[in-house]
């Protein structure tokens, strides 16, 4: 059953990556990449249960925190419309 | 008895979560424009992830595992909707128009 969950998550990640490749706008690509990040967290947790190694959950927790940093990057993009200021340096 | 009930409940949650994830991913691939795709991604990021993680909590053997899973749930619950909302606002501010079946009905 954990294997079924893992397969479902991998299928989801494949579709999201396909959207990231096709995506006509930048926002589609960011959305798909964000989704892949979330699913990676879940996949690592499933692998921990599949391999019966609870240490994997720590790695999943780190991945969730990394996702948080990615969200801050997205917020920056929202505010300034670009990741790095064109004038050089940070605004 | 109680073990069987918890087991069945956790399998229902895990399989339901995987199912919602795949449905959301199909929506992400098939919907016509960015705003509708946001709607599909919302299902995967909140309901799918939530059901999977709660299903894992019911399967956990020690309370430490449950605490770690609760932390993951909290982080996903705060970050994913925030990112989705920020992206929608950024897209609207950059002038991306919502999709409409009728081109004349499309409001600027």
Describe the structure in your own words.
The complex is a heterodimer of chains A (91) and B (108). Chain A contains 3 helices and no strands. Chain A is mainly alpha-helical. Chain A has one domain. In chain A, helix 2 (26-50) runs antiparallel to helix 3. The radius of gyration of chain A is 16 Å and the shape is flat. By secondary structure, chain B is an all-alpha fold. Chain B has one domain (2-93). Chain B contains 3 helices and no strands. The chains are: A mainly alpha (91), B mainly alpha (108).
Number of DSSP strands of chain B? 0
Largest sheet geometry of chain A: none
β-strand number of chain A: 0
Rg of chain B, rounded, reads 18 Å
Quick overview of this protein structure:
The complex is a heterodimer of chains A (91) and B (108). With 91 residues, chain A is mainly α.
Architecture blueprint of SSEs:
The complex is a heterodimer of chains A (91) and B (108).
Chain A: H1 2-22, H2 26-50, H3 56-80
Helix pairs in contact in A: 1-2, 2-3
Chain B: H1 2-30, H2 34-59, H3 63-93
Helix pairs in contact in B: 1-2, 2-3
Descriptive key words:
heterodimer; A: 91 residues; mainly alpha; 0% strand; flat; B: 108 residues
